[in-house]
Predict the 3D structure of the following.
Amino acid sequence: MTVKMRNWIRFLLVFFIFTLVFVVIVDKFVLPVYVGHGEELPLVDVRGRSFDEALIILTMVGFSVEVSDSLENADYPPETVIDQQPPPGTLVKKGRMVRVVITRGEHFFPMPNLVGKVLKAASLNLQRYHIVTDSISYEFSSDKPRGVVSAQSIRPGLMVSQNDSVSLVVSKGPPPRQLEVPDLFGLNLEEAKALIRKEGFKMGTIRYIPNNDLVAYTVIEQDPEYGILYDNPVRINLEVTIAPHSEE
């Protein structure tokens, strides 16, 4: 074999070894760095977990974590993860940033005063605070014009939160006449019931009191008292006598 041939073979052998070493270095070191270590993992679902717990889970797997937003949500405790990007199950490379949305917890605020506002303005005010209107009823009112809120079920200034519900009473204007509570003392029960209905009131509860001195079913107490004026029908509660139980 000539010297020229031997040199050529030696050159080919060195080139082959160099090329092999270069490919191994690129495959094992350069490419993994270039593609973010080359490993893709399905993103774990951390929704519903506390932020601290989600942070530990994601960082242990090799992801970075950032809070992108915080929202009020009464359904979850404060600092609970309610959304994440990328979504759970997405194949992502280690080192990727995972952005999460967490809750701020329930926000409390004073109940606004709606009395004296027209119904539409009161409804807009409730929508602004995200308070639910549970029911609306209409009653006569001597001091509130027609269409104006005359009462609300939650006292103004009481601390409430979003999605609490309130009932409103809206004025029908002044009543045709005010209702005066009749005097029911001394009447028997059936007479009292008839007079309550006649005067436009409603029958309330009846409490029976044993009594030896009066005829059974005689009214001895009423609530509200005789003579009080009302714009709207109210319930009148009675105390009525009954005969005491005889002792054996």
Remarks:
- The longest helix spans residues 3-34.
- Residues 7 and 13 are 10 Å apart (CA to CA).
- The mean pLDDT is 86.
- The two ends are 141 Å apart (CA to CA).
